[in-house]
Amino acid sequence: METLEYVLMGFATALQPGNLVYALVGCILGQIIGILPGLGPIAGMSVLLPLTFYLDPTGAIIMLAAIYYGSIYGGTISAVLIGVPGEGSSAITAIDGFQMAKQGRGGSALGIAAIGSFAGGLFGTVLLICAATPLAKVALSFGPPEMFALLIFGLSLLVGIGGRSVLVGVVSGLFGLLLILPGADLFTGQLRFTFNFLPLYSGLDFVPVVMGVFGVGEILRHAHAKPSQMVASGKGLRMRDMVRLQDLKDTWATIVRGGLIGVFTGIIPGIGTVTPTIMSYSMEQKMSKTPERFGKGAIQGVAGPETGNNAFANSAFVPMFTLGIPGSPTLAVLMGAFMLQGLTPGPRLMAEKPEMVWGIIVSMIIGNFIMLILNLPLVRIWVKITAVPYNILFPTVLALTMIGSYSVRHNMFDVVSLLIFGVFGYIAKELDFPVVPIILTLILGPMIEKSLRQSIALTGDGSALFRGPISITFLALAMLILTSPIWLGLVKKVFGKKTSIDKAIKVVGTDGE
């Protein structure tokens, strides 16, 4: 009953004209970002972060959330029509979707992808609605030791599992922690690690760092790439070809299974958006009576992954809203947008500003309906966006990032930081060095420091961290994850071959979004 009241409160917020406009704008921008190869939800949201500084907090987050799940589907259009996924989660869709387009069935592929995305988004949002209140109530009982342990556990999932090497991921995370040190001490106000350099007195702002690593870094990385030529245009994509009853009959069970996979993987931080698509595709291939059709234009190979990644995208909000832990790097950027507004996602925010949080949650339902309306009749317009030349796109985005980084604090040091971290992001990607842990620790670092120092203050020696069963459990799990290379190596020595756990970690490490 309490949840129903919150949902009704959320509808009252989400249906306000201004918030509806923000949801629509976010869906359109997300669609464009997803369609364009070379961009993606992280880069797109990073570039637009400064804009939210001047917007109403609720509307700003509604827009960024819509950009996130909008870009998930946007990548499908380029994956199906030109065989180049606009973002990572659409890579599996491209296997069969591109083959369908070459066979003249691109309309069916995009139509079923739109319906699957809509269903998956609803699955994920329903899970968020059902889980939000009970999980938030449990989390409200957490003290500083429990919050510290929970944050360390969440960070270990994102750093330890989300990279190819746990050790390199930890090194990257520690570098991110170093970036939060300059500036004023959280408790005493004394300056630290500023080296008498005036711009560092207020610390490094996370906006230019995030925009530099993900925005400028991606621009530099893709600037020398040659865009693929389209093999299909929007001319032959008619509404009646996109929504066919036979396609729905062939894929309804696939959509249900993909949605279930997406919602259960979404609530686990660090899994990555590619994982549910791989799991869904693999399941459908194994369950199919004609597995040989997969890779040659099987419509189930489009429906399953598309439902899975959209269910994942929406259910990944569960740990962020209820526990204050971003479920993915993209949501870490969204969490940064909250902090830019002076808000910290988690149970206290749900208790203190329920109309805002539930307005954002309900807007995701509305946003999924908007995406369905945008996708089916307007697909021919979206197709034309794939033809935007890189020599126009990338300079425009670079100019926007420089303007945006300056606008937050009106400080040229932030523009310089943007360019420095842009070059760093480019070099790191070229060297296959993980940059995601840097951003995660940069955003979560102040919260970790605050809860740690509060825990130390409780007893004077930090023993409070090891007195409660909750904090001990979370810290033990974090240690287990971070030491996984050691015990996995022992397991492999004993069995003499790669274990299923090892294979699962490799799958998980294929995507950071």
Can you describe this structure?
There is one protein chain. The chain is mainly α. The chain has a two-stranded antiparallel sheet. The chain starts with a helix and ends in a 5-residue tail after the last helix. It has 24 helices and 2 strands. Helix 2 packs parallel to helix 4 (57-81), helix 3 runs antiparallel to helix 4 and helix 9 packs antiparallel against helix 19. Helix content is 73%, strand content 1%. Strand 1 and strand 2 (191-192) form a beta hairpin.
Number of E strands: 2
Shape: globular
Mean pLDDT: 79
Order of strands, main sheet, comes to 1-2
- The H/E string reads HHHHHHHHEEHHHHHHHHHHHHHHHH
Number of helices: 24
Major pleated sheet: 2 strands, antiparallel
Radius of gyration: 22 Å
Share of helix, binned: over 70%
Q: Name the structural class.
A: mainly alpha
Distance between the termini: 35 Å
The low-confidence parts are 228-233, 499-511
Concise summary:
The chain has 513 residues and is mostly helical.
List keywords for this structure.
513 residues, mainly alpha, 2 strands, disordered C terminus
Task: Detail the topology: elements first, then pairings.
Layout: H1 2-14, H2 17-35, H3 41-52, H4 57-81, H5 91-102, H6 106-140, H7 144-161, H8 166-179, E1 183-184, E2 191-192, H9 206-222, H10 239-242, H11 245-266, H12 274-287, H13 300-315, H14 317-323, H15 329-340, H16 347-352, H17 354-375, H18 379-385, H19 390-409, H20 412-430, H21 436-459, H22 469-482, H23 484-495, H24 500-508
